[in-house]
Amino acid sequence: MAELIGQISTSHVPAIGGAIARRLQQDPYWKPFFDGYPPVRQWLARNRPDVVVVVYNDHGLNFFLDKMPTFAIGAAESYISADEGWGIPIIEPVRGDADLSWAIIEGVIAEEFDVTTCQEMSMDHAVTIPLQLLWPDGPAPVRVVPVSVNTVQHPAPSPARCLKFGQAIGRAIAAFPGKARVLVLSTGGLSHQLDGERAGFINPEFDALCLDALIDDPARLAGYSNHDIVALSGTQGLEILNWITGRGILGGGAAREVYRNYHIPISNTASAVQVLERR
Ligand code: DHB
Ligand code: FE
Asked: Running along the chain, 279 residues long, what does each successive block of 10 average in pLDDT?
C-alpha cells in the first residue's frame, strides 16, 4: 500500500535558482528566505519519502498558450529539466515512477477527470527549484510524478475542481498496491502579480488566510472563484491552485501544520513554505 506521509508547499520564484547558483544563502536579502528550509529538510530526514507527487504549473516549457491542458500527468521513467527562458541552471534528470503515474491516471480518469497523459515531460523552474530547496546537496533521492495544473491561462480550473481533482489523486495513491511513502510537493504562490498595472501586488492578509485554511478548512478556499483569487492574490497568485490540489491529495480531514515560513518579498512574490501532516 502506498502511504501519503505529508504535503510540502513552497514558492518557486526563478531568482531562487540564481541565488543558489551564486551561493547567496547568507546574503541579507536572501537569508530570511533560505532560513525557512532547514526545518523542512529535518522533517524530510525523519520522514523519508520514496516518491514525490509534484503539483505545479508549467510556464511555457511543455505547454504554451496554444496548447494548454487543464490537468496533465507525467508517466515517464525519467524527466529532464530545461530552461524555459530565465537563464537559471538546469538540474540532473530525476527518476519517474511510471507504475504509480499510470495508477493515478487510471484512477482519476475512472472518476471522470479526463487528464492529458505525458509519456515525455520536462521540468521547468516550478519543479527544479523546489527540488533544490528540499535536497540542496544534489540529486533528489526520490522518484517523481509530475502533475501540471493550468494556473496560467484563462479559463483555469476552479479551486473547488482542483480540490476534488486532488482528492481523486489521493484515492488512487491510497489504492496503489506498491509499497511507497508518498510526499505531495505543491509549488508556486503565494500572492504575486508579474505584469500589468498591479505588478508587484502582494496581499499578506489573504496569504495568511490561505495558509490557515489549508491546515483544517480547505473547503473555505474551494468557495472562492478564480476571479476572487486573482483580485485578492494577483494574476500569478492563482498558483495557489497547486497548493489546493495538493491539499486534496493529502486528504484526511483536518491536517496538522508542522512548520511554516512566510517572507516578503522575494522578487515580486510573497514567498512561503508550509509542511502539513495528516492527523
Ligand atoms: C516570479 C514568480 C513566479 O512564480 C514565476 O513563475 C516567475 C517569476 C517572480 O516573482 O519573479
Ligand atoms: Fe510561477
From this structure: 96 98 98 98 98 98 96 98 94 97 98 98 98 96 98 97 98 95 98 97 98 98 98 98 98 96 98 97
The rounded Cα 76 to chain-centroid distance in angstroms is 19
Domains of the chain: 2-278 (3.40.830.10)
- Cα 161 to ligand 2 centroid, rounded to whole Å: 20
pLDDT value of position 138:
85
Provide the phi-psi class of 200: left if phi over 0, else alpha when psi is between -120 and 50, else beta: left
Residue in 9, 13, 198, 202 to alter for ligand 1 test, most ligand atoms within 8 A of Cβ: 13
Helical axes 240-250 vs 159-175, angle rounded to 10°:
40
Parallel, antiparallel or unpaired: strands 255-266 and 180-187: unpaired
To test the pocket of ligand 1, the residue of 33, 149, 236, 263 to mutate (highest count of ligand atoms within 8 Å of its CB) is 236
Q: Provide CB contacts within 8 A for 85, sequence distance 6+.
A: 60
Angle at 107 between CA 103 and CA 108, to 5 degrees: 120
Vertex 69, ends 66 and 75: CA angle to 5°? 125
The CA 126 to ligand 2 mean position distance, Å, reads 6
Specify the residue for cell string 537559471.
88
